[in-house]
Structure formats: structure tokens, C-alpha cells
Design a protein that fits this description.
Structural class: alpha/beta
Shape: globular
Strand content: 5-15%
Helix content: 55-70%
């Protein structure tokens, strides 16, 4: 027994392997526990039961890429489409891990979910392997991971957030490893990851700053020019992707009016506009936070969590800088250069151990400082460039990696992890009241039967051509909503008002059954009504019994099929 205990204590390789296995299982276990608590299994998750309509676009685009190389019909909004090929408004780079997974294992409704779980599992494994956290740090990470419920919610979804979570966790894991032992290969890998993340979502350019700074520190002027060239190439590629592969959205995805104000109104006018926008959006930001605190409003809850993690990162960065400055660590190690420990010192075990500990402290400080900088930068980007409701979801990626960095902080009384844990528990468990934002969609017999019914209808009646693709012949209009007289609203609907029309959203979930390769153009009802006789898409799906349903029948569109929720027409020209 004593021999077994000595082996357990001395052979760190096996302990590391045990840590990797345990933490690698955490994402799967978290998902299993969540599903079991609801009385389901992971296989019962059903994307057509979700209310997140972005998932439909992501799913059908990846399905088309896996089967055809690119969608055969146009994806877009109000019949917009990309200049080249057929993608929606978001960069196709965002879903490249799903594409790879789909090519290897096939694509179905559960594929993105299993891929999400695998990606976060891989990120956990790489984190433990490269960072080598202690048992105490892993305990803190496990607790915060379970309390931060967006991990599970987005793993069990068709949203690509987990791809961003995982890449950023790996990014910081490699950063810490690089700072402990400076190697050019790891620095190059950081540039690759940060470049890919920027191509996925432009605000992730914040993370390209870190390898650029490290490159300048290591290579001086060569590093400066090299980093500038890499950043320029990445931004150039993003501009090309956005220009050629992105369809025009209903409204700008992000706003640059605060930049153009300087050119239109001069320096002082631009500053006045800049401050005014910060002020008014800041007031709206606070209103969202009030809603999150009192009523569980998801955007406000995300803002609370974001500011809490940012505050901890900023505070810890200040504390670490002050402590390391007193000890002379920063000046002595100069960003953890390998040469910081001289050849003469290598035979002095205690001094080397001290140097290694100093390197660890400095590596964590640099990561904390950069992540704090990124939090502040993204907060200004949110207030200046994004709609608060939609933009709040982009903050989840920052908080996800913040969980990992906070778990590494030196702590004696667990004050900072306890504070973050309480914030997460209140906002993402106790106040997670809205099923739209927090409830994982599980299969229900009625929805499954309805989707299968429409899948058969589509297979029998929707014809796809392979000539001059992509085209409008292989595309269907998804009318976002329509006005329906109260008497015509399905009996299961709520908020009926006798004698008055009400706006009903089209049950777009029934479009999951479209043939592989088909494009979808999400159109607003006003656009459809105005251009009904000039629409280019061959097919149209709208609310059964609505005004557009009636107009299509009147103007010669051919009805393919209908049920109580959806009617599909073909435009026979």
C-alpha cells in the first residue's frame, strides 16, 4: 500500500493523465446531467424544437457544404445573396470545424451537438496538458464550469459559440505554455488561431494583439513589421470574405457611424457624437442590467456576468503587477525569455525552481492583463457597434475563457472564484427563467411528426436543378411573419384578439426538412407583399391563413401543401 502511495505521489505523468481524463469527461458529464435532470438523453435533443432561428441557417448551410461543396440555392435576406457562391451574412469560416466533422462522420440533426461536445472536450484536454493546473485549480474550474450554464446550453445547440469558446481556450493554453518556455512554433500557432478567430468574427481581432505584442518583444523591429503584415493579411482576407461571400443582411451587422462622424462633423463634432452614443447606449445597457437583476432578462444577465469577470481580471492584474514589481520579477525575466536563466544557474536547483515559479506568475499575469484588455475593448465595441440584445451573446465567449483564467489565479480563501460562482449561480441558474434563452430543445412527438410530414412533402414536390448553381430555382422564401385574422389563428395560439389581425411568426422549424443543398431567403412580409409578382425564388413558405397566403393564391402561385401552421407555394413562371 505504501509503495502504491509513493508511486502515486512521485510519478506525475500518471497524475497528469488522470487529470486529462477527468477534465476531458467534464463536458459530456455536464450535458448528461442536464439532460437527465429533464428526463431525457443527449440523443433526445432536437434542433427543430428550438426557437433560435439562426440555427436553421447554420445547419442547412453546413449540410449543403458537406454534400455539395456549397449551397446550391441562394441563402440571403429579402432575396439578397453573396456575390460568389451562396452563404448568408456570416463568415463561412465560422463553421469550418462542423464541416470537417460532417465530412468525416456525416451530417444530421445531432451532428453539430456531438461536434460541440467533442470540441470542448478537446479544449479541456489541451488546457490540462499544456497548463498543468493543480487539483485545487481543477476543482475551482469544475465548479465554475457547471455554474456557467451557457457551456451546456450551447453544446446542446446548433449555434457555433462552442467553436469560439474552444478555440479561445486553446489559444490561451498555448499562450501560457509559450510564456513558460519561449518557442517560435507556439508563437506561429498563436497567430494562426488568432487569425482564424478574426475571420470567424471580426471583434476577435482583440486576440490577435497578444501574439503581435509577443512577437515584437521577441524579434524587435522584425517582429513589428512581421506582425503588422500578418494583421494586414488577416484583415484583407476578412474584407474579401465579407465582400464576396456574405449576403446583405436586413440591417448592418455592426455600426460604424461613430467613425464616419469624425469625417462628416470634424474632430470636435465626432467627439461629441462619440460621447453621446456612449452615454445613451450606456443608459440602455444599465436598463438591460436592471431587467437581468430583477426579471432574469438574458441580455442583462450576460452583462452582469461579463462585468463581474472583467472586474476580477482587472483587480487581479493590478495585484499581480504590484507583487511582481516588489519582487523584481518583471524586470528580471523580461517576458519569460528562455535566456532569463543563465547556464551558470542551471546547476542550482532552488534558484531554477524560483525562476520557474516566477515564469508561471508572469505568464498568468500577461494572460490576465490581455484578457482584461479584451474585456474592456469588447465592452466599448458593444456600446458603439452592436445592438445590445444581439450583441450580448457575443460576450459569452469572453466569459467562457474567463472561467479558465480565474481558476488559475493564486488564491488562499477562494474569494474571487466564490464571487464569480455566486454571480453565475444567481443569473444563470436561479434567474434563468426564460425558456427561449436557457431551455435546451428536446424532441416532442407532435413537432417530430410535423417535421417528418413536411420532409416527405419537400422530397416529393421540390425539384433541385444542377444547372448554373447557385440559383433561385433551388431556394425557398421563408416569410418571417404575417398578419392573420384572429378567427384564422390556430386554436393552440395565444393572445387572440377578436376582430383584429395579429402578427404570427412562420414556423420556420419546419424548413429543416428541406432537401439537402436548398437555399433559404428570409424575407420580411412587407418586402414580399410589395414584390410578390417579381420574387425570384421558386418556392415560398408562409403562415397558413395569412395575408400573403391569400395574395399568393390570388396571383397565380401554385400551392404545394399546407397544414395548420405552414403553407408552401411554387412560383410557376
Amino acid at each position: 500500500m505504501e509503495k502504491m502511495l509513493n508511486w502515486w505521489k512521485t510519478d506525475k505523468r500518471y497524475i497528469l493523465a488522470l487529470k486529462i481524463v477527468l477534465m476531458g469527461l467534464l463536458p459530456l458529464v455536464a450535458c448528461l446531467l442536464y439532460c437527465a435532470r429533464q428526463g431525457y438523453g443527449i440523443g433526445d435533443v432536437y434542433l427543430p424544437g428550438s426557437e433560435w432561428n439562426d440555427e436553421l441557417f447554420y445547419f442547412k448551410q453546413v449540410e449543403a457544404i458537406v454534400n455539395y461543396g456549397f449551397p446550391q440555392g441562394y441563402f440571403g435576406f429579402n432575396e439578397s445573396h453573396a456575390l460568389k457562391l451562396s452563404f448568408a451574412a456570416w463568415s463561412p469560416v465560422l463553421v469550418f470545424p462542423w464541416v470537417i466533422w460532417g465530412l468525416l462522420f456525416g451530417w444530421n440533426l445531432l451532428t453539430p451537438i456531438w461536434c460541440n461536445i467533442f470540441l470542448l472536450t478537446l479544449a479541456m484536454v489541451i488546457f490540462v496538458w499544456l497548463v498543468r493546473p493543480t487539483w485545487k485549480q481543477l476543482g475551482i474550474l469544475t465548479l465554475l464550469f457547471l455554474l456557467y450554464t451557457p457551456f451546456v446550453r450551447y453544446m446542446l445547440s446548433g449555434m457555433p459559440e462552442i467553436i469560439c469558446f474552444s478555440m479561445l481556450i486553446v489559444f490561451y493554453s498555448i499562450t501560457i505554455s509559450y510564456l513558460r518556455k519561449n518557442t517560435g512554433g507556439k508563437l506561429a500557432l498563436l497567430f494562426v488561431l488568432a487569425g482564424l478567430m478574426t475571420l470567424m468574427r471580426p471583434y476577435l481581432l482583440l486576440f490577435l494583439v497578444l501574439p503581435a505584442v509577443l512577437c515584437v518583444v521577441k524579434y524587435k523591429w522584425k517582429g513589428l513589421f512581421g506582425s503588422a503584415a500578418i494583421v494586414g493579411v488577416v484583415l484583407g482576407i476578412y474584407a474579401l470574405i465579407k465582400h464576396y461571400l456574405g449576403a446583405e443582411y436586413f440591417a448592418p451587422l455592426f455600426f460604424t457611424d461613430w467613425v464616419t462622424a469624425f469625417f462628416e462633423q470634424g474632430l470636435f463634432g465626432g467627439l461629441r457624437y462619440f460621447c453621446s452614443k456612449l452615454y445613451w447606449n450606456g443608459l440602455a445597457f444599465l436598463q438591460h442590467m436592471k431587467g437581468g437583476l430583477l426579471a432574469g432578462l438574458a441580455s442583462g444577465a450576460f452583462f452582469w456576468g461579463y462585468l463581474a469577470v472583467a472586474a476580477v481580471l482587472i483587480l487581479q492584474s493590478v495585484i499581480d503587477f504590484r507583487n511582481m514589481r516588489k519582487c523584481g520579477v518583471i524586470g528580471k525575466l523580461r517576458f519569460c525569455r528562455k535566456s532569463a536563466v543563465s547556464e551558470e544557474q542551471k546547476d542550482r536547483t532552488q534558484e531554477m525552481q524560483r525562476s520557474a515559479e516566477d515564469n508561471d506568475c508572469l505568464a498568468l499575469f500577461i494572460v490576465e492583463l490581455h484578457l482584461a484588455f479584451s474585456f474592456v475593448g469588447m465592452l466599448f465595441a458593444l456600446l458603439l457597434m452592436y445592438k445590445l440584445t444581439e450583441g450580448s451573446k457575443h460576450l459569452l465567449t469572453f466569459m467562457a475563457v474567463g472561467v479558465f483564467i480565474i481558476s488559475l489565479m493564486k488564491t488562499k480563501f477562494y474569494k474571487k472564484p466564490a464571487f464569480i460562482g455566486l454571480v453565475f449561480a444567481y443569473f444563470y441558474i436561479f434567474m434563468a427563467l426564460d425558456p427561449y434563452d436557457y431551455q435546451v430543445p428536446f424532441a416532442e412527438d407532435a413537432r417530430v411528426a410535423q417535421v417528418e410530414y413536411w420532409q416527405e412533402i419537400y422530397a416529393e414536390n421540390l425539384q433541385m436543378t444542377d444547372e448554373d448553381v447557385p440559383n433561385y430555382e433551388n431556394a425557398i422564401i421563408w416569410v418571417f411573419s404575417d398578419s392573420v385574422e384572429a378567427a384564422n389563428v390556430a386554436s393552440g395560439s395565444t393572445n387572440q384578439t377578436e376582430g383584429k389581425a395579429q402578427s404570427i411568426n412562420t414556423k420556420w422549424q419546419l424548413l429543416y426538412g428541406l432537401p439537402e443543398g436548398f437555399g433559404i431567403s428570409c424575407c420580411m412580409p412587407d418586402f414580399v407583399m410589395e414584390h410578390l409578382e417579381e420574387l425570384q425564388c421558386r418556392y415560398l413558405g408562409t403562415v397558413a391563413g395569412g395575408e400573403i397566403d391569400e395574395r399568393c393564391a390570388e396571383t397565380g402561385w401554385t400551392e404545394i401543401a399546407r397544414d395548420e401552421d405552414l403553407v408552401v407555394y411554387e412560383n410557376v413562371k
